[in-house]
Amino acid sequence: MKTRAEMTGLTGQTEQGCRSDRSATAAAARNIPGAAWITDEAIADTIQVWAPYYGGKLTEREAVEILMNFTNLVDALVQAKKER
After folding, report:
1. pLDDT at residue number 29
2. From 15's CA, which of 2, 29, 39, 81 has a CA 20 to 30 Å away?
3. Taking the CA atoms of the chain, what radius of gyration do you get in angstroms?
4. How far apart are CA 22 and CA 39, in angstroms?
5. Residues with Cβ within 8 Å of residue 67, at least 6 apart in sequence
6. pTM here?
7. DSSP string, 14-82
């Protein structure tokens, strides 16, 4: 089975040399710029929706990353539409 990095083409935080502390709370996982809007409920919903596609339970940190990536995608699409 392919690893997550192989499935997405992107490397995860632990693969980039970041700490691999998977027991971070939702608040600690959201302690990144631009993520203050992410609620515990949004994290739980993201884990529930995306876990079947990842083949297992996601961590809170992974759910925050998914939410931030989605936000970045939407921002890029909105910007591209404005530039048209």
Report:
1. 66
2. 39
3. 14
4. 18
5. 35, 38, 42, 43, 46
6. 0.63
7. GGGT----TT--HHHHT-STT-TT--HHHHHHHHHHHHHHHTSPPPHHHHHHHHHHHHHHHHHHHHHHH
Residues 6+ apart with CB under 8 A from 40: 26
Residue-range definition of the domain harbouring residue 68: 4-83
Give CA–CA dist 27/29, Å, rounded.
5
Q: How many domains does the chain have?
A: 1
Give the pLDDT confidence of 24-67 residue by residue, as tens digits. Answer: 556 666 677 778 889 999 999 999 999 999 988 899 989 999 99
Neighbours of 47 (CB within 10 A): 17
